Amino acid sequence: MPITSKWIITHDGVSYPAGDVVSVLSVEAEDELISYGIAKRVPVIEVAAGSLLSNVSGDDETALTPAEFSELSAADQKDELISLDIDPASNEPGRIDQYITWYENQVIGNDHT
Q1: What letter does residue 46 receive in the DSSP assignment?
Q2: CA-to-CA separations, 102 to 65, 69, 105, in angstroms, rounded
Q3: In what order do the strands lie in the sheet with 3-5?
Q4: Cα separation of 7 and 68, whole Å?
Q5: Which positions of the chain have pLDDT values less than 70?
Q6: Over the stretch 86-105, which tens digit does the pLDDT of each residue have?
Q7: What does 4-45 look like in DSSP terms, one character per residue?
Q8: Structure pTM?
Q9: How far apart are CA 100 and CA 22, in angstroms?
Q10: Run of H or E including 68
């Protein structure tokens, strides 16, 4: 499961800035960062029907991860944030931060910190 970190993570020569979603680490490396309190898991959550980000398979709808959200075009990012009743930021880092905040706050039954 992807994580976000309070610090820069460097893995295989690639640096991931603080706050970026990182999904290339082993489970053991993720667990170690989490145990030190410098990273946390990024959950997968369900979203409302009709959302651009929903991956509909029968009645199952799952939101994209923040990493997947960051791959959307600027227009699609803005449309999705508007559909979530969020006034989109004018720049991509701001929109990604908004989505990550929404993503973390809307997890049903999530006990992450």
Answers
A1: -
A2: 11, 12, 5
A3: 21-22, 3-5, 39-41
A4: 21
A5: 43-62, 107-113
A6: 999 999 889 988 988 888 77
A7: EESS-EEETTEEE-TT-EE--S-HHHHHHHHHTTSEEE----
A8: 0.46
A9: 13
A10: helix 66-70
